[in-house]
Amino acid sequence: DAGVTQSPTHLIKTRGQQVTLRCSPKSGHDTVSWYQQALGQGPQFIFQYYEEEERQRGNFPDRFSGHQFPNYSSELNVNALLLGDSALYLCASSTRTGVIGYTFGSGTRLTVV
Amino acid sequence: LAKTTQPISMDSYEGQEVNITCSHNNIATNDYITWYQQFPSQGPRFIIQGYKTKVTNEVASLFIPADRKSSTLSLPRVSLSDTAVYYCLGGADYGGSQGNLIFGKGTKLSVKP
Lengths: 113, 113
Prior knowledge:
The structure holds 2 protein chains of 2 kinds.
Chain A: E1 5-7, E2 10-13, E3 19-24, E4 31-37, E5 44-50, E6 53-57, E7 64-68, E8 74-78, E9 87-94, E10 103-104, E11 108-112
Parallel strand pairs in A: 2-11
Antiparallel strand pairs in A: 1-3, 3-8, 4-5, 4-9, 5-6, 7-8, 9-10, 9-11
Chain B: E1 9-13, E2 18-23, E3 32-38, E4 45-50, E5 53-56, E6 61-64, E7 70-75, E8 84-91, E9 107-112
Parallel strand pairs in B: 1-9
Antiparallel strand pairs in B: 2-7, 3-4, 3-8, 5-6, 6-7, 8-9
């Protein structure tokens, strides 16, 4: 049973560029959340998708956007990259019907230079 | 969602029992306490969740006193592979609304031989 799959694992981008990160949720999960984790900090909630709509959003600017597809997979897009966007981006999947705990992927390490 | 406070770091030796205490003075009536474990360059992994008294699984035990203002994660007979960051979270019941997770900085546990 595959867990949460994220791609790519590592990425280097230049300031001002745009990036797209991808996530496939665990089998049977229909809800996807994205988190940003800076070095030495806990993960910070970006947003959550369910039924192809953004359901909740954390304190992140509009440069951060996302999408969920009919197969429950999701993308995180970040425009106009800043040096401060360098972080580990984590995808977490869950269900809305009683599963305890989220399942996280191993993340995408984004470096902005 | 409850704000949690936990020690920044702890040291232990192989074979010892480790107890990590988390303070959550403003926990709401419907909040559960959940613990996650995170290894470097990996996403957090769900360990255990409880509401009150004691919960035990194959990995750990969770003790929550009657006033629910604190909780203690107990790891029996730790090994080197238990070296990780441990996060205590207070939040809504996962059986219903899938709220976002609020992580602090966690407790960095270092297990020495």
